[in-house]
Amino acid sequence: MGMLWLGLTCLTLPTSGLAHTRDVTITRDDWGIAHVHGATDADAVFGMMYAQAEDDFGRIERNYLQALGRTAEVDGEAAIWTDLRQRMFTDPKTLQADYARSPAWLRALMVAWADGLNTYLAKHPEVRPKVLTHFEPWMALSFSEGSIGGDIEQVPLGRLKSFYEGTSLALSDVERGVAYEEPTGSNGIALAPSRTRDGHALLLINPHTSFFFRAEQQVTSDEGLNVYGAATWGQFFIYQGFNASAGWMHTSSGVDAIDEFAETVRARSGGRFVYRDGKRWRLLKQRRITITYRLPSGAPANRTFTVYTTHNGPVMGLVDGKWIAVALMNRPLAALQQSFLRTKATDLDGFLEIARLRANSSNDTIFADQKGDIAYLHPQFVPLRDDRFDYTSPVDGRDPTTRWKGLHSLESLPHVYNPKTGYVFNTNNWPWTAAGEDSPKASDYPRYMDQAGENPRGLHAVKLLQTADKVTLEGLRDLAYDPWLPTFDRLLPNLGSAFDALPPTDPRHAGLAAPMRLLLDWDRRWSSNSQATSLAVFWGEALWRRAAPLAAGSKMSVWDYMEQKSSPEDRLQALQEAVARLNSDFGSWRVAWGDINRFQRNDGEVEQVFDDVKPSYPVPFTSNQWGALASFGAKAYPGTRRYYGTSGNSFVAVVEFGPRVRAYAISIGGQSGHPQSAHFSDQVDRYVAGNLRPIYFYADDLKGHVEAIYTP
Question: If you count Cβ atoms within 10 Å of the first and of the last residue's Cβ in the chain, which end, N or C, has fewer?
Fold first, then answer.
């Protein structure tokens, strides 16, 4: 069956690793998913990490190279700036001090985490790490929050490089926010018993991440741990999932939790600098950071930087002559505690108590439990600020009133507990529609509580949830794959008006008549067989490229700009471009969406190389840019004409919290990262069809579905 966990070789292991091994059992089901059991929570963590390493050690190592600021040791000189950015916030000595002062229970988990990975490497000498040949327990603190894309990634690398190299380097289109980029994020929905057929709360878990970003696992112990869901590779907690009594889904938030402070700086003799803080001048702290990188020859080399820090944060660039200090959440110890402890919360009260650690900066949370409680939680790490200032731009670091003034209390944040409407949701949109008429009111909160605004998926979810009634678990699954694309309901009428205004003598009138008819007769639903979906997506992308820079200058969302401000000429030219592209790439502008939009997994590499000649699968859903709840972020790559997906629906689950939990799930591709494994791509057919498989949560569920039982 190609199961890579069979035929293990017994080698000499660390004493602590052997102790854990005796008390750990890994059961692989018929999808290759690991159900790990340990006598203690630490034993379970040991087995959890061992099983993850079996499935994809390369992604574990990659995540920790990024978290530790060591990617240049593999990727070479081009990665120096990514590493420097990371190291300005992640200092190994600080993490080691945090480890030393952490509570004993958490230290035990970190030791087990390191033992699990090191034991795997000891037993698999054929696995050759690129850099990390040994894991230390404190390293777990470097990657303590499981989001897709951390806060730090908002810091522009171009600006950082310009400042510390003393060069002038323009920001990229991506850094300026004008490039067409597939959004990452997620959908979460919870339905109260009043909305469901059987009187049980329901939860949708639908992260939109880069593909293969998380592992599906169940982890249990005799100390009360019993959690199922998606764990980001290398982390010892389930990030999005459920236990026997409660479940949670994290969605990327639009809250402002990272700020820039424009510092007034003067040079002093001896190479030191001072900066203005109110009426006084303060000495900038400085330290040296050495980044090791790989030369083309493979040999290592070093670059050392002197970096600067004010009381507001590290200096990460220069804008209009001012040094820019960046403030963001940097609380790894609290974050790791919160991330693990919430997996053991059994009801809303317990979940809220853990949330008081306030170490979640970037994620909204949708919650449901067996008691029938549902909730929307805003990120808990929200700095308290003076709302007179516009924190979407750098604020004056000289002015003490711009400083962060502690953190908001949980009660002062937007939230919804058990709304009368019977539902809560988030699609990376604002919280002001999270529960229909029972949603928080924007006027009651500072502006910095949201920068995202509404999005097409939010409009889609609201329309569905307003009428959702007597919903079953299977009905919630179907809702998650509703094929409506609301963006085109907004945009196509204006295109029709632009076409109708063309004089009959205009050659475009004849040339675009048939494409217009196809679009205007379309029901705005995706499907693999839909030619209109192909034409609409290509047209929407062409119009987006024109509108995005103008929308950024107008401080409008691109969707609003395309609907309200794009000119008739832009709309028509975008349609001409779409028709021409389809004709050029596919031989006709009438081509089924499934012939373009494909899933392909050729190897286990983090960066896939796609090939139109190799086998691939048609995918019916589209980018969430167009309001698709089921998201598939795809595009053409060098040498391809077809679109290949790399982000969007990854782990999807629906959960019913009755007396006995019932759930379905699907993971993109398969559980294993090894092409020779039977579980490398065994879930693809179900994935593209939205055909979620039953989850084996209980021991009797597993009967008849076991492929292997073993100890590490």
Answer: N
